[in-house]
Amino acid sequence: MENEKELYIQYLKSYLSVSTHIGCPLGCIYCSGQSFYPDLVEKITDPNSLVDDVYKYKLFRKDITPIVINNRSDPFLPKVRKSSMDILKRFYEDGIHNPVTFITKLTPTPEELSILDEGRLPVFLFVTYSGLDKKIEPFGHESQLNTFDLCNDRKNFKLIHYWRPIIPTINDSDEDIRKMLDTVSGKCDASVVSGMRVNKTTKKSLHDKGITAIDDYDYSKHKYLDKDFQLKIKKMAKEYNHEVFSHTSCAISTFMDKADYNLHSNTNFCDVCKNHSNCKENCGQVILDEFRKLDLNSPVSEDTDSIVRYQGAMTEEERSFLQTIFKKRIIPEELTLSVSEQLMAK
Prior knowledge:
The chain has 13 helices and 13 strands. It has helices spanning about 5, 45-55, 80-95, 110-115, 140-150, 175-185, 200-210, 225-240, 250-255, 275-280, 290-295, 315-325, 340-345; strands at about 10, 15-20, 20, 40-45, 65-70, 100-105, 125-130, 160-165, 190-195, 245, 300, 305-315, 330-335.
């Protein structure tokens, strides 16, 4: 497929996406990747070649950079699952300690869960489940519910319920919220709530199914969810003693007992989060050398303890990387969208 080499290693907003495969046959009509992902799985590269390229990638830092494996597909699809485990095993063998994430709607085998649970680096298994019906998620939900049950004996990896997408009038009622909390509390370590990314392709797919409520929402923001709605979910979740986060990086950082590496505490409501005190600590590191390593040679200035301005252009990948490294918000004069962002905007 066109652009596949630009997509197999790419720094996204919350992690470095590394993939041996691209494409997904599950057919979820809200998926923003449908504008450029193939319906069938295609192999891009092999696990060892991928990992070698990751280590050479200019935005990778050993033991720091968060990684997501086979995010351009589902890591536990039949054609993908062996490569997903081989990538993780290679990371184990190489002794790196970067946090590694898998995002799935499928069910890992007991052997795969055993590999995830070895405890040799921080592993996060995100299971996407939001209770949507089959006209929106044709695949159904049996696999996700099975995964929640199969992970009961885990000792090391974290099981995160990825509560996405929440679509207005479809799965956002109080009854929907309580039903979900009844299902995941006590089984998952936490939930991450997320709205839906809407582009021309997904909007048409939803309209074809009679879903028009999205037209009234501001989806210019990434996976937008109304603030009051998020606060309501978090308040209801407290009744279940269940933690709910607004971002994947918040969840990952909390379980690693570190400040959110995507700096959401600088811009969003976070006072209800148990990790809030960590996120308010600043890291006074010299950043100029790292900018120059990326050939970002325009002037750099620190506005405050938490904001750095760059008087030039940078890519979205570079900004995400620098924010992860320095725990500061990076504001460039001009921001260039990544390849996947450009494709998803279509």
